[in-house]
């Protein structure tokens, strides 16, 4: 895109409006296509679940301890790095010593094998009975009460997945006594303006750490698109650490 075309952009909360088709289509530009006059386009989100749902909603402001389920997953490995970048003590769960070692290498402070020990008891032990301030959970129903039992007073549970089901019972009295919050985190049903604001906040507060290399995605294996079925088979084994990528 030419300099003069750039000058005709009008930017509003993460959106760009191209107002001069002739400039955008000039022969000196490096694109054969451009938005129609007046069309609005959004910036591509930094993503990885939009930098882990805008870093667990700003890591709940004053959080000092966070728990990440599935620490060796694609989102988990990224979440560990973001939390450490923000100066938070990180607890993780994973299902093998190899996965826990990978989490440790990324900066996790307390690594718990959920197949071998009770993560609630371990969290209580490590925090002198207080619990953690924030939990990032992709399991859902089967972990709900145990997650709440792991939270400190005023703690917040961020649910981003439902691998363990969507329906369960919960002790509301315990939630009330400790002022706990359950938040389902997601971008899909937000307004475009809200999405644009989140993208801008992530770009400002998290993306510099990605650009500098302090935070980076962990890539386990790549597959050509023609081998998509094989990539799914690998994912189903749950043996991977980090992201599995399909390359067009």
Automatic annotation (TrEMBL):
Gene Ontology MF, one: oxidoreductase activity, acting on NAD(P)H
Classification via InterPro entries: ADH-like_C (IPR013149), ER (IPR020843), NAD(P)-bd_dom_sf (IPR036291)
Gene3D superfamilies in alphabetical order: Medium-chain alcohol dehydrogenases, catalytic domain, NAD(P)-binding Rossmann-like Domain
UniProt xrefs under SMART domains: PKS_ER
Alphabetized SUPFAM superfamilies for the sequence: NAD(P)-binding Rossmann-fold domains (SSF51735)
Keywords carried by this UniProt record: NADP, Oxidoreductase
Domain named Enoyl reductase (ER): residues: 4-246
Region (Disordered): 1-43
Name this protein carries in UniProt: Quinone oxidoreductase PIG3
